[in-house]
Amino acid sequence: MCHEPTVSLLGPFGYLLSQRQPASAKWYDRRDYVFVEFCVEDSKEVKTDFDKNKLTFSCLGGADNVKYLNEVELFQSIDPNESKHKRTDRSVLCCLRKGESGQSWPRITKEKAKLNWLSVDFNNWKDWEDDSDEDMSNFDRFSEMMNNMGGDEDVDLPEVDGADDKCLTLNKKSSCGLGKGWENRWKAKYFNTLQQLLISEL
């Protein structure tokens, strides 16, 4: 008896499309957070489970509704209540709040393991431990991310000691006799405001 040949549709990592397969992901470390971006276009039914020591991600992706599932035993603990995710048409970004701020994560997994679906996001990677200007270097990045998020809501500008409110605006800053270093102080406080707004939008 002759049998019709069967054709298996395989995903990017050799899994059957009918099975759950891991989504390609990138990650990078920051002082207070660890960011993980799951690269799934047109994702649907997105679910993220933030446990103290584990991250679980699942969704359907693309026109074929490919089933994705990722489970990561984390390098260190996180704060599940302060961890969030944001979906876009191209990916799902997870923001993991570190259980201990200021602790560097040399890797995201608990064990030293090579996962073919996980890589370091070198475009955003930064050795912040040796950089006292970590907040200043992030100022432009968070400003850009906030702008890309759109919206017409006003941003409450931070106050700088000794500054006239009329002297500081979002698009134009005048020293107003504040002396050397006023702009860095303004940027540092404004960056903190942007960071909190970004996290709240996730």
Automatic annotation (TrEMBL):
Pathway: Lipid metabolism; prostaglandin biosynthesis. GO terms for biological process: prostaglandin biosynthetic process. Residues 20-109 form the CS domain. Keywords: Cytoplasm, Fatty acid biosynthesis, Fatty acid metabolism, Isomerase, Lipid biosynthesis, Lipid metabolism, Prostaglandin biosynthesis, Prostaglandin metabolism. It catalyses: prostaglandin H2 = prostaglandin E2. Pfam families: CS. SUPFAM superfamilies: HSP20-like chaperones (SSF49764). GO terms for molecular function: Hsp90 protein binding; prostaglandin-E synthase activity. One of its GO terms (cellular component) is cytoplasm. Its EC number is 5.3.99.3. It is found in: Cytoplasm. PROSITE patterns: CS (PS51203). Its main location: cytoplasm. It is an enzyme of class 5 (isomerase). Gene3D superfamilies: 2.60.40.790. Belongs to the p23/wos2 family. This is Prostaglandin E synthase 3. It comes from Xenopus tropicalis (Western clawed frog). The gene is ptges3.
